Amino acid sequence: MSINASEKPLSKVFTADYRFAIPAFQRSYSWHNVQMKQLIEDVMDACAVHDGPYFLGSLILVRDEHGMHQVIDGQQRLVSLSIIFAVLLTLEEDSQLHASLAGLLTEAGDKLRGIETEPRLRLREQDEEFFREYVQHGDLEALFDLRDTDIATQAQRNIQQNTRCAYDTLAAMTDDERRQFAAYLVNDVMFVIVTTDDISGAYRIFDVMNMRGMPLTPSDVFKAKVVSGISSAARTVYARYWDDIMEPMGDENARIERFFADLDLIFTRTPICESLIADFTGHVLDGYIRKGQCIEFIDDVLRPYAICDEILHRPSESLLPRPVVDLLCALGDYPYSDWKPVALWALVHSLDNLNDPDTVVFAHGERNASQRVSLHDGERLMQILTMLDRVTGIDCLNGKSELERRTRAATIVRDLKKQSPLQRIAGFSVSADEQRLAMLHLRGELSIDAGMRRLLLIRANEQLSGERITRPRSLNAVPIIPERVPTGSQFAAWPAGTCDYWAQRIGNFVLTQKAPRYFNAVDDFGARRDLMVRDASSRRFPLTRVLRDLEVITPQYLELRQRQIIDLIAQAWHIDRGDVAIAEQQAAAAAHTPGVAHRSKRTSKRVAVAEVVRAGLLKPGDRFVWNRPRKHETWIITVTETGFQGEDGTEYATPTAAARQIGGSTASLNVWKRESDGRALSDIWKAYRAMM
């Protein structure tokens, strides 16, 4: 068995030197939005610092007899990078950069030399055509137009969701920012490529690199450094004490790393650790070690902050006052934990007796009332947590990056240390433009993901009820209107385009304990309503409970529900509607002022025909033709105010629906060409998205 290993940038990886294929026995593509967003943000942060290459790990490959490189380890990253390339390609207007990005996805053919056009990466058979058609051919408009029921596998669903995530993140950049990101990604992001000709040997390499041994956690390293600076008489006692302090975190390495990264931010106000062990040692530990204050670090820093981290991890079990517990539980709803440094600092500086080993913090450890943890400034802590919830919610809604979120946390901690009045802390303020952007997301003019919909509905329900509502273990945001509206459904009688308009808007969603799969085959409103309100846990939420008495659903009802939910969120997060209106006017004026730079607001939300008609890119009566010469077929659809109409009078809300019903296919939007000028529907959709 021969083994070769080399370090290469992506510009040398996605070339003719490698023809990647995912073996049939490998698991499917399983990354979700969290991993995709983290990959993009990590590269963005490395690009911003730009102090050297960014290492993306190793690829383990087996070269077969056909010259293909079978991917043993690295599928998730290769697929995700291909998605990022496709998004960059779609957003790029420069023809040379466009060609360069296209070359990262496919190998251009050469008829003269007998070279066929082929993709750089082949997925498993069940997902290969989907990935090639929509991602590697760069037809993202068709991908965004697909409904969930048009997608055959979970891997394909992940591909669509992660493409949306990448698009929404990268479209928010300016052209120059995006091009700098692309250049860094291609030239400075590195893989170590390990290649062998023996598959069993490849798996042995994978096992050695990933599965064997128990690597030291940051806590192990920091413990060794600190304890070595303690006198021999106390060293054993404090080594055991360190272990006792860290025991509640167990072996959750990600949690341990985040805890020390948060400590680093609190002490240094540095948002991101490039190298946690080196940074925390240099920024924090070395000062205590030089001064001979290792015991003080354990007693005064490690113990109180670790206790407070455990409070944040399971607030409902703590002995803190109910209003504080409610706020901490609310913060725990967020998909990100970049609010934690602020909450940690606030708790440590608000709780009494944390240094006393006899102080009881959690209910299960209570021995007597005099030892319970207590607050010395509960009102200020409540104010901090309330303001923290507001800025965290708006930042999450607006899709702020990890660097932006942690930079905000660092500025808040800095000003809290200065004892600044809370109203004058810059990190707690939200600009009119940020409020305007949040309202665009809430109204559905900019996209929000499934996790954010769930959180928004929790906040709206609790704002309506006036108190925290206990969450059941399973809690989901499901749509009132089914994802796919079949002929004969009561929803099919709604005007064309109405269901599509409401598909992703928050007013169409309800909190319920029932899992989304139970609703897949249910298209009757009454049956869907009964499923939503069946469980008592679901009926705890007033915006769900109210559906019990609703016999008929109408677009007008959804409009009222949408306004109610938006108003409740605006109240919960103190979004000033007057400031929002002013900011919208200013943004509209800036958009029409020559020389004024502004960021793109393009998102991956499904484009509705009515929106394109209102924008003037389509007009009722426009005819689109799909020629299928091999089948000797020609299909024609005509644009209406809200959708398309087939030659038999059937109305379709989306071009994908028309392709599916007419031609039995979820074909690309490229198949539909306008009769008057030959322009592909996908190009018109892309032009509209650029106008957002």
How would you describe this structure to a colleague?
The chain is α+β, with helices and mostly antiparallel strands and 692 residues long. Helix content is 50%, strand content 10%. It has 28 helices and 17 strands. It has a six-stranded mixed β-sheet, sandwiched between helices. The chain has a five-stranded antiparallel β-sheet with strand order 16-15-14-13-17, covered by helices on one side. It has a two-stranded antiparallel ribbon with strand order 5-6. A hairpin with a 4-residue loop joins strand 14 and strand 15. Residues 579-600 have low confidence and may be disordered.
Number of strands: 17
Question: Which parts are unreliable, with pLDDT below 50 for 5 consecutive residues or more?
Answer: 579-600
Biggest β-sheet strands, sense, barrel: 6 strands, mixed
| Tally of separate helices | 28
Tell the overall outline: globular
Span between N and C termini?
55 Å
What would you call the quaternary organization?
Answer: single chain
Query: From the alpha-carbon coordinates, what is the Rg to the nearest angstrom?
Result: 28 Å
Q: What would the average pLDDT be, to the nearest integer?
A: 86
- What class would the helix/strand composition place it in? alpha+beta
Residues in helices, as a percent range: 40-55%
Strand line-up of the largest beta sheet = 1-8-3-4-2-7
Strand content: 5-15%
